[in-house]
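for the writeup, i need someone to sanity check this before i put it in the appendix. the sequnce is what the collaborator sent (i think, or maybe the updated version? ugh). structure was predicted straight from it, no edits. if anything looks off just tell me and ill rerun, i have time this weekend
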Amino acid sequence: MPRYAQLVIGPAGSGKSTYCSNMLRHCENIHRAAHVVNLDPAAEYFDYQPVADIRELIEVDDVMDDDALRFGPNGGLVFCMEYFAQNFDWLKEQLGDIEDDYLIFDCPGQIELYTHIPVMKQFVETLQSWDFRLCAVFLIDSQFMVDTAKFFSGIMAALSTMVNLEVAHINVMSKMDLLSKKAKKDVEKFLDPDPQLLLCEAQHFSPKFEKLNKAFANLIEDYSLVRFIPLDPTDEESIGDLLLSIDTTLQFDEDQDVRIPRDVDEDDADNGACG
């Protein structure tokens, strides 16, 4: 049987660790076994207990304090992730050989790790070689998605990530609970939008970049990457709806349903043979 994993990715400050905590708590409430793995070597705080923590392998602070390396925060994080890529066996040992795992990977917030640095792509390929089915859960702060220009910027980052990682991909508009009623109404048009209509409404775009913006709109339409799932972390139903979408993408429920009838059929066949 395959194992399953969410790769929780997105820009810094988009609420990835909070998402992981809430999703783990929700899985516990519905009696599903799930585990969170911290892959952020710069993490300072999270309120879940990780089944594996990259900081036990390497930490950004240690890299930055090394006089021979002399890295800043971003360079230090990239160094840590490249070191991690050379030591994937460490994670395999941490995870053990348990079947039917459902893992949630809390990933770093540096967007370049998903757009052009090969580390996360290598990680995806390694997990697939370990028989994991993967879904990238790309979080964007809903407070950021307040106008068309920022929407285009965010969705292009999501598209770049999707093309680079080449795995199933779900976009999530996080922190919906922090929006005012007016902001929630304004942001609704970005959940399942028409890029061409948004372009027409955005009169503030400079005429100098009109062709570029039209190209963005066409690209977004061509890849059908225009739908966001809203997430209110204070609403259990909202978390459940998102998990259902992820499960459908991973075919998690189908595997559970298929496995039970197969056992029953085998029992029936055995009984028939005995009779």
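Residues 257-275 have pLDDT under 50 and may be disordered. Strands lie at 3-9, 35-38, 52-53, 102-106, 132-141, 168-174, 229-230.
thx in advance!!
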